[in-house]
TrEMBL record:
The name this protein goes by in its record: Transport permease protein
Keywords: Cell membrane, Membrane, Transmembrane, Transmembrane helix, Transport
Matching Pfam families: ABC2_membrane
UniProt record similarity statement: Belongs to the ABC-2 integral membrane protein family.
GO cellular component, one term: ATP-binding cassette (ABC) transporter complex
Main subcellular localisation: membrane
PANTHER family from the UniProt entry: TRANSPORT PERMEASE PROTEIN (PTHR43077:SF10), TRANSPORT PERMEASE YVFS-RELATED (PTHR43077)
Cross-referenced InterPro entries: ABC2_TM, ABC2_TM_bact-type, ABC_2_transport, T7SS_ABC-Transporter
Compartments, as annotated in UniProt: Cell membrane; Membrane
Organismal lineage: Bacteria, Pseudomonadati, Planctomycetota, Planctomycetia, Planctomycetales
Length: 300
């Protein structure tokens, strides 16, 4: 005897969700699942390397304490700053950007290591879009950078309690925290994507360190982080440096509106946000373009 056929209404009710899962789940998995997996891999690798955690946070903090103590006597607040601003307070946003820069450098070095170990070749031949690779590597590195910079912004003012830094005239409010976090995200994505673009064609970590010394560190030094923007050719270099707008935007975001004045050395908040977002978008686009190119370097 054969089993009775199920009613037609019951078959239609069960089949509808199955068809949706067949059409939507693969599209979601093809783009976001590889990106999420690569980002989580970056986070796991970072937290398993304790020396990397200490180096990425400890070195900028030492810079802030030592350089702040040594240069505060010769510092004069720029015209846009309050008269009571100390050098450590002026240097504070710049150190947060330096932490993001160092973290972006160390995160994107993993691209060279992954290629040498054969992991990157395995990812490239997998049936996933190249944009997922970019999103995963940049997203993981940016998340680490944001976490470290946020910890520094919280812990840094507390160093005044043990005499390692003067008191900072910063206020913590609901209007300051979201703007500060937003600028950290934009700067972290932009710098990590820039590091991705520089590391992708590299074949050795030594070559990448040379680029870091010649290009990335001067880029930070000439961003208004270390000293105020001056006139002349140096002022033009700071003006043309896209990282200058990230530092200025973070500096403005850390203070309530109206605390910092309008001056040539400190662009307005909307200009800083527009330039920083544009820089991040351009770097992400170049990273995707580089990843879609077919080169013999991918096979080495």
């Amino acid at each position: 005897m054969s089993a009775p056929a199920p009613p037609e209404d019951a078959v239609a009710t069960v089949d509808a969700p199955v068809e949706n899962s067949k059409t939507e789940a693969p599209e979601y998995a093809a783009v976001w699942l590889p990106a999420w997996s690569l980002a989580v891999r970056e986070l796991v690798r970072f937290f398993r390397q304790r020396t990397r955690v200490i180096g990425a946070v400890g070195q900028p903090v030492v810079f802030w304490i030592l350089l702040g103590a040594g240069l505060h006597g010769s510092f004069e607040p720029p015209e846009w700053a309050p008269a009571e601003m100390t050098y450590q307070e002026f240097f504070f946003p710049g150190i947060a950007v330096l932490i993001i820069l160092f973290t972006a450098i160390f995160s994107t070095i993993s691209i060279i290591e992954d290629r040498r170990e054969g992991f990157l070749q395995g990812v490239l031949v997998a049936p996933v879009p190249r944009i997922s690779i970019v999103m995963g590597k940049v997203g993981g590195g940016a998340a680490i950078a944001i976490l470290q910079a946020t910890i520094f912004l919280i812990v840094g003012p507390l160093l005044s309690l043990v005499g390692l830094a003067p008191g900072l005239e910063l206020s913590v409010s609901l209007s300051v925290i979201p703007a500060t976090l937003a600028m950290l995200v934009v700067i972290a994505v932009g710098l990590t994507a820039l590091g991705y673009c520089l590391a992708w064609p590299m074949e050795s970590t030594q070559g990448y360190h040379a680029v870091m010394s010649v290009f990335l560190l001067p880029m930070w030094l000439l961003s208004g982080s270390f000293f105020p923007a001056s006139s002349g050719w140096l002022g033009w270099v700071v003006f043309l440096n896209p990282l200058s707008y990230g530092v200025a935007g973070l500096r403005r975001a850390m203070y309530p509106a109206g605390t910092l004045g309008e001056a040539a050395g400190l662009p307005s908040g909307p200009i800083c946000a527009a330039v920083s977002v544009g820089f991040a978008v351009v770097c992400m686009g170049v990273a995707v373009w580089l990843s879609n190119r077919r080169t013999t370097t991918d096979l080495r």
